[in-house]
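Async update (no meeting this week)

Hi team, since we skipped the sync, here's where things stand on the single-chain job. The sequence we agreed to prioritize is pasted below, unchanged from the tracker. I ran it this morning and attached the output directly underneath so nobody has to dig for it. Comments welcome in thread, and please keep replies under the output.
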Amino acid sequence: MKLLLLKNCLMINITNQNIEKKDILVKDGKIDKISEILDYDACNTDVIDVQEQYVMQGLIDCHTHVGIIEEAVGKIGVNNNETSDPVTPHMRGIDAINPFDLAFYDAIKSGVTTVMTGPGSNNAVGGLSTAVKTYGKIIDKMVIKDPVGLKISLGENPMSTYGKMNKAPITRMGTVALIRELFMKAQDYIKLKEQKKIKERDIKLEAVVALLKGEISLRVHAHRADDIVTACRIADEFGITKMVIEHGTEANLVKDYLAEKNIPVAYGPMISPRSKIELKNRDYNCALELIESGIKVALITDHPYNLIDQLRITAIFAISEGLSQLDAIKCLTTSPAEILRCNERIGKLQEGYDADIVVYSGKPFDINSKVVITLINGKIVYKR
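Output:
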């Protein structure tokens, strides 16, 4: 297998924001070496002279429905909500992902190399999400981690979905009661399994076991501040140590509480209309407020509610409100990698990491900059 060498790359040092010129050697899908000048064997190395264009690690969107809500397909391609039942922890996002969805191509041409994709928010308990690379034909070969979290939804969506059917949940209390009921049954199920008293496996409860054992995260759809606090209450009641607030429109109103509990926020979508009451306090400044409070923040598109190729644009909006370039980089790379608990492989332009690399025509957060080249696992998957 030939090596790949990217020469004369402008890299942003994420510790001091200095611009450094480096060569990057890629081997077996990983970043093998990064140095000022790397020699190479012409017979065994493909060389790309980047010509002092900016190079960054691939962007990561840790909350989307890419491949599950398909583009240009219509209703039959909308597979994110199994609304036959408000409690569906056993739904697995991977079973609905179409790797040929047009959004995957939009992702790679905009420098997004990893996404978390999974169930929607109409159910009190929606199911299991997965983290995948954005290039490939066989979804199982694109997976980085499956599952990465169990989705629950608080607030307007479950109530509006089932309330009109006069079926629980009709209220916020009803939504949380369904979640508690499931988690209590799962606790009892775990005890019976430990005592070897289970005669028949329960597919719904099996899906919750990994969460209660701390193996995956609780991913909580919550916009309003009171729903965010409710999520914290649920986590405390059931000893859940890994939780992520998804959306967090009003997270800044309870930022000190989130900081105290060390709970990260996957914030967004930012570039969206206030289409429901829970979004009335949407503010481009929220990410900055959260970060200044010591909260780990990832910016998300929630594709297709913002399009996947708008991920970098959300950071530009946040920068316009005072977010530093360094924090913007973290919001799109290291922080979402840590939230997905895949940070041993992705999120850094560093030796030993997956060679998910993006070359830009100008400064990464210049609105006029274009993605010139995208590499995923060391393979050129897009070239402008």
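Quick observations from my side:
The longest strand covers residues 143-153.
Residues 318 and 324 are 9 Å apart (CA to CA).
Reply here if anything looks off.
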